[in-house]
């Protein structure tokens, strides 16, 4: 009779495939996972509590450091919430700039995911392709706001800096080049039999499970649910542009891969239209009081980040600082399904499933 010994294994908190300080306590029967317990909080910095002693402009740099792979989106959700509370009008040029940088950020974020996900599975070359192209986007962000990762670019009422001369043309060139690069990505990886054998049918769940766990982004759409806040509840200027919402049907790692790759193409479509319609002149900041004091009350707004639905709940007492500030972080919510997906899987699939969820630890722990 063959016997197997139960093993207790710590994956992390310092492990290259967790992409940050994240720990999973795994129980194994042979090579099969029987129990998985995520341990979070190693990167907790108390952002929401700190915000209670800061004015709204001072909070913006803190949002950069939540999901630091898509900081522009975090900037926007805070500013958008305050603007809705105060009933502020945003100049068209500023709103175009916001939308353009958010879609560029979505592409850059998906490139990080694509490169690191394939590196985790064992493919080295795609990582070099992805970070080479992401570097071009970060260079354009650096031109625009003087930073490559944590931008502090958006403000309540608009944006801090206008686009420098020739910047829009350089973004147009990037978009044109990225269509060709996207074809190269697919030729390099998407049809590879070894890669497909690692992700097809792995980490599978249905739409009901996804909704019950509160999943969003590609982790929800992979089950066939066509839910993207840019379409379902349009904000900014998204209702002006034509784009599709990619969905899957099997709810596995393969569908999540396909959706994110398709989202890069849809972001390029949005950028094409936005760059053509970009106003030739105009203000980049609306009429905003010197001290931003939202009226007493509360508000919740939500937008579509590269990882799913990011929400901002503000409770105001009419002061310059929020009485309470709460963020709904998609990485944190999406991670809750991980134990369910891992039980019964082979240990070699742990990294495949975790990478397919696409988390950023700064956002998980906040």
From TrEMBL:
<protein>
    <recommendedName>
        <fullName>NADH-quinone oxidoreductase subunit D</fullName>
        <ecNumber>7.1.1.-</ecNumber>
    </recommendedName>
</protein>
<dbReference type="GO" id="GO:0005886">
    <property type="term" value="C:plasma membrane"/>
</dbReference>
<dbReference type="Pfam" id="PF00346">
    <property type="entry name" value="Complex1_49kDa"/>
</dbReference>
<comment type="subunit">
    <text>NDH-1 is composed of 14 different subunits. Subunits NuoB, C, D, E, F, and G constitute the peripheral sector of the complex.</text>
</comment>
<keyword id="KW-0874">Quinone</keyword>
<keyword id="KW-0813">Transport</keyword>
<keyword id="KW-0472">Membrane</keyword>
<dbReference type="GO" id="GO:0051287">
    <property type="term" value="F:NAD binding"/>
</dbReference>
<dbReference type="GO" id="GO:0050136">
    <property type="term" value="F:NADH dehydrogenase (quinone) (non-electrogenic) activity"/>
</dbReference>
<comment type="function">
    <text>NDH-1 shuttles electrons from NADH, via FMN and iron-sulfur (Fe-S) centers, to quinones in the respiratory chain. The immediate electron acceptor for the enzyme in this species is believed to be a menaquinone. Couples the redox reaction to proton translocation (for every two electrons transferred, four hydrogen ions are translocated across the cytoplasmic membrane), and thus conserves the redox energy in a proton gradient.</text>
</comment>
<feature type="domain" description="NADH-quinone oxidoreductase subunit D">
    <location>
        <begin position="120"/>
        <end position="291"/>
    </location>
</feature>
<keyword id="KW-0520">NAD</keyword>
<keyword id="KW-1003">Cell membrane</keyword>
<comment type="similarity">
    <text>Belongs to the complex I 49 kDa subunit family.</text>
</comment>
<dbReference type="GO" id="GO:0048038">
    <property type="term" value="F:quinone binding"/>
</dbReference>
<dbReference type="InterPro" id="IPR001135">
    <property type="entry name" value="NADH_Q_OxRdtase_suD"/>
</dbReference>
<dbReference type="InterPro" id="IPR022885">
    <property type="entry name" value="NDH1_su_D/H"/>
</dbReference>
<feature type="domain" description="NADH-quinone oxidoreductase subunit D">
    <location>
        <begin position="292"/>
        <end position="365"/>
    </location>
</feature>
<dbReference type="InterPro" id="IPR029014">
    <property type="entry name" value="NiFe-Hase_large"/>
</dbReference>
<keyword id="KW-1278">Translocase</keyword>
